[in-house]
User: Fold Cilia- and flagella-associated protein 263 from Ceratodon purpureus.
Amino acid sequence: MAEDPEPAALDDSPDGNADDLDASPQADEDAKPAPLPVPDVGAARAALDATITLKGHVDLENNLLSEHLMRLMMRSGSGDNMPIQSLDSLEELDEVYEEVEENQGFNPLGGRTSSSRMSYNIPSPSSDGRGGPGAYRPSWMRGTHEMERGLSMEERCDIAVAETKSIQDQMNIYRQESERILDELQAAYDESELRIGEIRRDIGDFGREVMAEAAERGARVASSEHVLKFLQDRIKTTRFTIEKLRERNATLHGNIAKTEAALEIKKDLSDVLHAVDFDQLAIQKQQLEGRLRDRDKEVFRLKGENLKTEKALEKAQAQLGVLSEKYKIIKATIIERKPQLQRVKEDMAKALETRGKARDAYAQAVKDRDQSKGEKKPSVMEYLGLKKKVSDLQQIAHAMHMKVEVADLTSTQLGVKLRKAIRSSQK
Assistant:
């Protein structure tokens, strides 16, 4: 759209006329500047993106170079535990680079004498990672004859290879540390598994030896005697194992001391001894180790037999205690049943006396019957009376006979128990 022409300025001079007034608007239109071209937004945005990408690459390159330089400084003994970001001024950075030059063998005539012979454009801490004219360069890199330049592809590759090697070394260190920690954790895990297995075995043994006995008695709680016995057995087993390990440790220490002494002797006689002598010593060492192993086996066997003997002795003592309790009970029972035995004996005597009387009466009756064969026979009532008397006497004799048998059996049982108790007490 065309813009409205601005009104011409009035001329205050007295020589002005109408022609001048008519020509002034045309002159103003000719003197107006041409409109600016419209910028291409897409191209500007693409250029901005390319610039941002380039800046990211440059920042990454600068960070990599800074880390590499710091590693070189720390390797040479300068700048320990002092990152580049902690430098507050360019003077401090100059001092650090001067230390690097001194430690790495700086040559003023031929530049640095390092193996890589690379010239780096290091940005200063205040330049925000930007290179170019405003970038900071060390004193040995700021020669008047040298122009500012960036890193070449070969230099970048060298730095990348050095950083890759450093990272691989760190990875190897971390891997070794991880393997060590993994081995420690595996050892702890195996030890925990062994301990869990031992605890499970102890639980099973406790259930078989203690809780099973309580279940047989019908009790919900195990007796304290069985629990104490179980704990004492476990303590004895643990002490035996500790003693065995202690003896084994002492044996190993003795072997180590003997070996060290033999090594000292061999060191002293190293000029005198020959290969044959060393072979003879090795054979003798093997023979002595074999004898030592045989002695250890014999000692372990004797200890096992001693342990078995102790267990058998404890079992015999327990059985002796049980038999002693039974002997006391039987003795008390015998003392309690002595009056009963006396009464049984009296009943037996009475029964024997009654049986003798009945036998005499029966013999007298038979005799009377034989004598009365030729005489008058008894009447029916007399016969029935005699028959009843004989039946009563037979019942009495049978009852007395049963009492005598019971008394004999009781006496026999008491005699057997008494003999067993006396025999067990004598043992």
